[in-house]
Amino acid sequence: MKSKLLQLFVILFVAFQTITFSQSWVQISTVPSPIFDINSISVVDANTIWVCGTSAHVRRSTNGGFNWTNVSSGLAGDLYGICAIDANTCWIGTVAGSIYKTTNGGTNWVLQHSLAGSFSNGVQMFDANNGVFYGDPTGSGQPYQFRTTTNGGTNWVLAPGAPIAGNEFGVINAWDWTSNTTFWIGSANLAASAPNAKVYYTTTGFTGTWNSATVAGSGGAQGLYYQAVGFINATSGMVGSNGSNLMRTTNGGVNWVAASIPSGIVSFAAINLNGMKDGSNVIRAVINEGVGYRMFRTSNLGVSWTEETVPVTTGIAHLRFLSASLGFAGCAGGAFLRYGPPVGIDPGNTTIPESFNLGQNYPNPFNPSTSFKYTIPTSGMVTLKIYDNVGSEIMTLVDRNMSAGNYIETVDMSAYSSGIYFYTLTAGSFVETKKMILVK
After folding, report:
1. Is the pLDDT score of 19 beyond 60?
2. pLDDT exceeding 70 applies to what percent of the chain?
3. 53 near 332, Cβ under 8 Å?
């Protein structure tokens, strides 16, 4: 009898651990006051994240979205489209069709481009010099603002083949790409009850040839908006509309056919799509039913769908994934979500520790990533910070209340130069510092 009870305990323990460490969506923070709606997010690495939104607000995190710094100085209006390449350098678009850049972590923003009557929808930098931007045409018969830069935004040049708009405009975050030459961009047909809208695509880059596909749909009083775009490779992807449409292509956007709708969903607006480019064929869809937001994923271009539970029901605006096991979402009310295993918990060590301990980072020396293991025997406030060789704080990995347990954190220091750094764990009266070496 005792043997059977022990076996049952082991089975339940293993099952509990499997559930505990599965991947899920969790709200890890709300951006600090004043609260705003997040419109767009940029995820540089597991630690460095930027978000922008309404009323000229920008926030930056250097510990994976747990804590945020207000870096909005000098900006005005609602902000749409953001792209950062590290903790210091970021580009952002505005409701007035402008592009701003910072090179000092948001302390100052410099205007690089502005066009009255336009509207920023997205910006993407592929490195410190080369990037693309798309914004609205200034009116019917005018070109879409498809612009490129080769000098970090000092000049934003209108693409010579930028499509000429009809009774239409662009839509926020409604684009995707698989390389710096292959893009898809959704649009909005403003005619009431519009039966279709265009999806623009190119395989020759922003400065190359642009084509369009007329995609069927069901427009309402405000028209038909193909406002969600997600691709898994150069040929296969999906778009979603405000008119209860999900469409798929398998020939790079030339032709589109209807995909199935998740079970139980009738009338909806597709808010955002995110396509994984890792061979998994996974596309996630954020859907607004009118009474709440839901998240679904498919790995067969919408033939079937699986729902993912999300901790908020309103305003999931923009998804970004670093890998199959780590993703983020920005939401209305400043809510910030993380997809992945429980943050920081070390699945290889589930015992409750008896004392505080900070382990040596591994690997060490490292380039560019390394991990830290530490143990917390009692619940309380914990910080884990990184300092340079003169004692200046450069990064906060942990700054929150934590339960007793064994933890592991990983940091990417690709934005920093070679040298000696220090990391310090503080928990109550316990303080310990260790040295690590970054070698590039």
Report:
1. no
2. 93
3. no
Phi-psi domain of 405 (left: phi exceeds 0; alpha: psi -120 through 50; beta: other): left
Which residues span the domain enclosing 368? 357-438
- How many distinct structural domains can be found in the chain? 2
Banded model confidence at residue 340, pLDDT cuts 50, 70, 90: confident
Distance CA 339, CA 62 (A): 17
**The pTM is what?**
0.81
Same domain, 376 and 328: no
322 plus 400 within the same structural domain: no
Tens of pLDDT, residues 34-46: 889 999 999 999 8
Q: Kindly provide the residue ranges of all beta strands, DSSP E only, lying in 324-418, ordered along the sequence.
A: 326-331, 335-340, 357-358, 369-376, 380-387, 393-402, 405-412
- Amino acid letter at 426? T
CA 131 to chain centre: 18
**Residue 60 corresponds to which tokens in the numbers above?**
């930056």
* HEC assignment per residue over 407-424: EEEEEECCCCCCEEEEEE
CA 262 to chain centre: 23
Who's near 76: CB < 8 A, 6+ residues apart? 56, 94
Q: How far apart are CA 272 and CA 107, in angstroms?
A: 30
CATH number for the domain harbouring residue 207 = 2.130.10.10
The predicted-structure confidence for 342-377, as pLDDT tens digits, reads as follows 666 665 556 778 899 999 999 999 998 888 999 999
- The two tokens of residue 261 are 């709708």
Judgement on whether residues 329 and 410 belong to the same structural domain of the protein: no
The percentage of the chain sitting over the pLDDT mark of 90, rounded to a whole number, equals 79
Q: Is 265 exposed, middle or buried, given 0-12, 13-18 or 19+ CB atoms closer than 10 A?
A: middle
In a domain, residue 54? The reply is yes
Query: And the tokens for 296?
Result: 């679904």
Q: Give residue-wise pLDDT tens across range 178-229.
A: 999 999 999 999 999 999 999 999 999 999 999 999 999 999 999 999 999 9
Same domain, 257 and 391: no
